[in-house]
Amino acid sequence: MSTPPPSRVTACGLTQRPDRAAWLARLRALAPWIVAALGAYALLNAATIWPRITHLWGISPLRAIGFLVLFAVAGVSFTALLISLNRYLLIIAIPVLVAVLTTNGVARETLDLTIVNQQTAEWLLWEIGQATDAVSMFAGSFAAHLALSVLLLTPVVLVARAARQRFRANIRDIPLLLSAAFVYASSGVVIHHYFTPYIPAESNLLLYGAEMLLQPSPDVPPADMQPGDTSPVEQIVLVIDESVTYDAYVTHLQNHYARWNGVDFGEAASLSNCSAAANSMLRWGFRAEHMLAGEDPRLAPTIWSYAHAAGFKTWLIDGQRDGSYQNFMRRKEAKLIDHLVGVDEGVYTDDAIARLLSDILAKPGKRIIYVNKRGSHFPYAQYPQEKFPGARTPEQHYARSVQHSSQRFLDLMLQGVSLRRTLVLYTSDHGEQFGEGSPHCNVKPRWQESSVPLVLLTESPLVSEPARAAAAALKNRAGHGQLFATMLFAMGYDLSTAEREYGTSLLSPHVPQHYYFVSGNPIPSERQQITVTQFTHFPHRAPQPTAVASAN
Question: What is the rounded CA–CA span in Å between residue 32 and residue 46?
């Protein structure tokens, strides 16, 4: 253990600071530890940071040098932060760091990313309830990145612990902790502000997530339309399946659902390739002009607001969580839901939801029910495999999961239910693809992630007749954006007024001129003011040539 350099005492008895030689000696003693810390930190971040240096150098050498200086400050302060922790705090900090590093690594690999950015960080935080599923689905990737995270973090921890032993007499834990944390956070913020998205790997989720979680939550406005005296139906059920593509619907469900004589709109476009964004927009209502102007979609009345104004009770039945919030739900919105019900019966959750719906719909009263089915989320092998044997690939497990979770759903749900007074809308939150990257929620989406079914079922002539007439024009051209106005009309609101605010419905034979796609986080921010993209063709699919009539 080193001893502090001696102080000089003057004739008056005043103690002077150590001379310059003593400070240089101390600096020389620290230099190897600083270099070691920078080396360890660089190794920790090598997979995501160093490939960016060449890119930054090509833009501006000064910009690259500035980034390296800030990166060095982040590395030294991060190591100093670890040095300030006693062994008990370090035991807590290390698993947290390993978890964040592992999550970032898996996200980069499975979501086809070079670095975690704001959208994917927010998606990971909002979908944290699917973490165990993700671990199961990407077990190999998870294990590899877990080992790599431990391996890369080890040099940083060793440097920090060796420095703590070497300079124990000079360390004041609390001041060092506070100052190191401040410098590290400040350098991270500066890097993030000027070099986005080139920020230290282990702080990505923390930095992006903190900003998202601290976003203000505006009040939910009341309905801004006046409902009519009567409504075409008394009960509305919006069934949101999980990850059911249009192709999977045609292959495994269409024949089963056809017996209910519904209106099949063919292939429809979901509003997003992420569950959270798609579900939130279906609840909040998609207003294209407002969102293209950068307006926060939470500033409009929700489906619950309109339902209460029209005298409907509100239900949300969730088969993916036991009543807790998800999909950008917040407390202010949840207060508008009269019955927030979580259902968890394992692989038979969707059967339980269908039977619950049958019981509810058999009772008199006006109600709207929003249903999040458990569906076919990864890992796809969530079905009784003794009943559906033989699956080996993810695609085969997915097909059997769709069959098990959805084939019998309408049969169980509509048993004893009068469709004369009930409207059922069936769709999926997003599609699924089995190529490179994630099955859905890719930052660069594949068109399959937007491809979903859309079916309307009712025996109310005020809804079924215009829907059938409209389906001839809307076949394979409809989308999630037309559901909100349809539900408003079913509650008794004027159709033309609803369509003027929320776009065309499924009851008007007006083919929409555009498709829309909402990013993983539909809430605008300073960096992403516009969260919706407009397409003249199916989202992320190459434009299809116009069919030429045959001469035969």
Answer: 20
User: What span, in angstroms and rounded, lies between the C-alpha atoms of 437 and 445?
Assistant: 9
- pLDDT tens-digit series, residues 74-124: 888 888 888 788 777 788 877 877 777 776 666 655 544 444 555 555 555
Peptide bond into 218 cis (omega under 30): no
For the chain, the C-alpha Rg in angstroms (whole number) is 29
Place of tokens 């004739």: 11
Query: The whole model's pTM is what?
Result: 0.73
Residues in the chain: 552
Which residues make up the CATH 3.40.720.10 domain(s) of the chain? 235-510
Look at the domain 235-510 and name its fold: Alkaline Phosphatase, subunit A (3.40.720)
Strands (E) located in 308-365: 313-318, 339-342
User: Quick check: bond before 95 cis, omega within 30?
Assistant: no
Contact 450, 539 (CB under 8 A): yes
Q: How many whole angstroms separate alpha carbon 404 and alpha carbon 349?
A: 11
- Distance between terminal CA atoms of the chain? 96
8-state DSSP, 479: B
Contact present, 292 and 534 (Cβ < 8 Å): yes
